[in-house]
Write a structure and sequence with these properties.
CATH architecture of the largest domain: 2-Layer Sandwich
Strand order of the largest sheet: 7-6-14-8-9-13-10-12-11-15-16
Helix content: 25-40%
Number of strands: 29
Bound molecules: zinc ion, fe (iii) ion
Structural class: alpha/beta
Number of domains: 4
Number of helices: 22
Shape: globular
Distance between the termini: 48 Å
Strand content: 15-25%
Largest sheet: 11 strands, mixed
CATH topology of the largest domain: Nucleotidyltransferase, domain 5
CATH class of the largest domain: Alpha Beta
Length: 745
């Protein structure tokens, strides 16, 4: 007989891990106990040595689906003989390395009960178990116990308590466990926030049917919802939210999704995954979803219901609903009940409940690329689960992220903890959200930040925040961070070539970068090519009014005389003057801007009402052709001037715009390949990194990905974080780590 102390780290709390261990111990006839502690779970196991081995194997190979084991350590000890196996109460310890689970979509077992007339939780909108339900968004402290969640104010009834205490129940220590008798309840409010006494299900369905705009409380915040087939309602939401053309997300059951979108096996798998993200899907030509939902694109973002409340609603209607984060323009999603009146100009009614959301988490957005996940926004369902990186940092390093699509990242040991999606900096709401999320991560993981990294941009709010907090820090160039981020999440320490095609990033020469080619690794990156610098008339203003950049492209390419033909209806003369006199016209090497300008030249889109709109529209009109435009490379600068000349030539000859767009995409793909072929003669690398917002363009990504493989190199793309600026903070921590090592800290 042997006794072992076993310590298991990872996501092992709130995911049914202890009852699983309990059952294993019984199966192998072993005695001892298990308890949660701040480092994970602690197991004392006693019995036949061979059976203990079997027991450990089973822990590793057969654990509950939502558990994630990071390490199992064991030690033989002397211990008195024990009579049984037990689960004992948690204790709080100093060292914290347990991880709180992300929020998980309602599981099939709970769904069966939810719609079972004989179940005591029939249509109870807060049904959950250890395999599903809210976690991160309701937890304010560790260890993960009911007392440290917003469920602490609900005292369980006897029946719930029995489930909670029974190791063989699916609800054993399911912290949000509740029922009609003892748990939270749903209620409907009118526009004046007066409670309406009614059957909330009946009334909600009625209101949706009538085309009313509802604000509905979800897991990580409130959403604005309406009948997605009702184009007037959709238009009204757009108007009230003052939201340009940015697409809205939708929720429906799988049949509704199939009626409106093409769905492959991979996309269906993502939709049905426990993370239940929004999946970007190709819209069917015969879709009933009105154009207003996602103007100018042929894609729709759909998610399946992921809370019992959503399931109840969707089950009772025969149309999908629009479901978009409740917020004012680019602010963080609204999640605090006390503040719902801030959005009273948007909703007609509020469907809410009294289970508090402690911290927000927005819906995640993903795309399927080559059968695997290609993230667009990583938040609910994924955060706060950390992931492993190929470096080990003794210091705890914070990457503050970018000011657009902000999320921070904390590197500790060989794990990266990325925050939930925070949003675009530039208003007090998101700034406060940053502080709150940072405090939250520090608390739930007991972290003390030793060192920070922020963007080089002198006007970035994230930079100010770090200065205010007063942590020692360095500033790092945006596109180096893109490059290193992609290397880290793909576990690459070798040298690689990196194509960073992006919107905007402040450069080391004070110009605006965004079409950069790097060579190197996480320690050193050499900028080996960049797009020819071009004036961006009005800076930020020229990004929004992208027609200005169309003028700049013409001017730079020697077609000043053509400007009037293209921009007769615009104040083009002022723009020309700005360019000539170098007035408020910073130079940029951005590929994102090149897309903007070309989109305007083709009369596809002259104003970005949301980030990337002009480029997205340009991509969407593309019609397949083998032809391409050719970029020139001279002295490590990439020249696009001939491309513009050839586009003008094609326009004059009446070439269809769809082909021009495709030739432009082909040209960029050829450019990447051409540079690889030049560099492979001189250098030794096998990895080709593709990062930056431009690679959200799936046409370009598709065109280049296979061609890199054909020449026996490995394309490296983002698979854990988005290729857009949400990935910046991870790259910053990597460069911070390299800096500390170089300087022997
Ligand atoms: Zn469940
Ligand atoms: Zn109960
Ligand atoms: Fe970027």
């Amino acid at each position: 007989m042997k006794t072992y102390e076993i310590s298991v780290k990872g996501i092992v709390q709130g995911v049914g891990f202890r009852p699983f261990v309990f059952r294993c111990a019984k199966k192998y006839n072993l005695n001892g106990f298990i308890k949660n502690d701040s480092s994970g779970v602690f197991i004392l196991i006693q019995g036949d040595e061979k059976k203990i081995e079997d027991f450990l194997n089973e822990l590793n190979s057969n654990h509950p689906p939502r558990a994630k084991i990071i390490s199992i350590e064991r030690k033989i000890i002397d211990y008195e003989e024990m009579k049984d196996f037990r689960i004992i109460e948690s204790e709080k310890k100093e060292i914290v390395s347990t991880y709180i689970s992300p929020d998980i979509a309602t599981c099939d077992d709970c769904l069966k009960e939810l719609f079972d007339k004989n179940d005591r939780r029939y249509l109870y909108p807060f049904i959950n178990c250890t395999n599903c339900g809210p976690r991160f968004t309701i937890t304010f402290g560790i260890p993960y116990d009911r007392i440290n969640t917003t469920m602490s104010i609900f005292k369980m009834c006897d029946e719930c308590e029995d489930e909670y205490e029974d190791p063989l129940s699916r609800r054993f220590h399911a912290q949000p466990n509740a029922c009609y008798k003892c748990g939270p309840e749903v209620f409907l409010l009118d526009k004046n926030l007066e409670r309406i006494s009614c059957d909330w299900i009946e009334r909600t369905i009625e209101l949706l049917n009538k085309g009313k705009i509802l604000m509905i409380k979800g897991i990580g915040g409130y959403h604005i919802a309406c009948d997605a087939y009702n184009s007037d309602a959709v238009k009204e939401v757009r108007k009230r939210k003052r939201r340009g053309n940015k697409p809205f997300a939708l929720m429906g059951n799988i049949e509704m999704i199939k009626e409106n979108c093409y769905l492959n096996e991979c996309e269906e798998r993502f939709l049905k995954s426990p993370q239940a993200p929004i999946v970007l899907l190709k819209k069917r030509e015969d879709s009933k979803i009105p154009e207003e939902v996602a103007p100018g694109t042929d894609e729709l973002g759909f998610m399946l219901p992921y809370t019992p409340l959503h399931h109840i609603i969707i089950k009772n209607i025969n149309f999908p609903i629009l479901l978009t984060s409740a917020n004012i323009s680019e602010e963080t999603i609204l999640y605090e009940d006390e503040r719902i009146d801030r959005l009273k100009d948007i909703f007609d009614y509020v469907l809410t409940h009294n289970r508090k959301i402690f911290i927000w988490n927005e819906d995640s957005v993903v795309r399927c690329f080559k059968g695997e996940i290609y993230p667009i926004r990583i938040s609910r369902g994924f955060v706060p689960e950390p992931f492993k990186v190929p470096i080990f940092s003794d210091k705890t390093i914070l990457g503050a992220g970018s000011d657009l699509k902000n999320a921070f990242c904390i590197l500790k040991g060989d794990y990266a903890f990325t925050s939930q999606y925070i949003g675009d900096m530039g208003n007090i709401e998101t700034e406060n959200a940053f502080y709150k999320a940072l405090e939250h991560f520090k608390r739930i993981y007991s972290l003390n930040i030793d060192f920070a990294v922020c963007d080089l941009h002198p006007e970035y709010i994230t930079g100010n925040i770090i200065s205010k907090i007063g942590i020692p820090h360095i500033k790092v160039q945006h596109h180096r961070a893109h490059f290193v981020s992609c290397l880290l999440e793909n576990n690459i320490l070798d040298d690689a070539i990196g194509f960073i095609f992006d919107g905007t990033g402040y450069g080391e020469d004070n110009n605006i970068w965004g079409g950069e080619v790097f060579y190197g690794n996480i320690f050193n990156q050499e900028r080996i090519y960049h797009l020819n610098y071009t004036p961006l008339p009005g800076g930020e203003e020229g990004i929004y009014n992208n027609w200005r950049y169309g003028i700049s492209l013409l001017y730079q390419s020697g077609f000043e005389k053509e400007v009037e033909n293209f921009y007769r209806d615009y104040e083009y003369e002022i723009i020309i003057q700005m360019i000539k006199k170098k007035l408020n016209s910073p130079l940029t090497s951005s590929i994102g801007r090149l897309f903007d300008g070309v989109s305007s030249l083709l009369n596809v889109c002259h104003r970005n009402t949301y980030e990337g709109e002009a480029a997205i529209r340009l991509e969407k009109i593309a019609k397949r052709t083998e032809d391409h435009y050719e970029f020139l490379i001279k002295d490590n600068v990439i020249f696009y001037e001939d491309v513009i000349g050839n586009i003008l030539f094609d326009l004059k000859n009446g070439t269809e715009k769809g082909y021009i767009s495709f030739k432009f995409h082909n040209g960029l793909s050829d450019l990447i390949l051409k540079i690889i072929k030049i560099e492979i003669e001189k250098k030794n690398f096998s990895y080709v990194v593709l990062s930056g917002g431009v690679f959200q363009n799936s046409l370009l990504l598709n065109l280049i990905y296979d061609r890199i493989k054909e020449i026996k190199l490995n394309p490296v793309i983002h698979r854990k974080l988005p290729t857009n600026d949400q990935c910046i903070s991870l790259g910053q921590t990597g460069i911070g780590y390299a800096f500390l090592r170089k300087n022997h800290f």
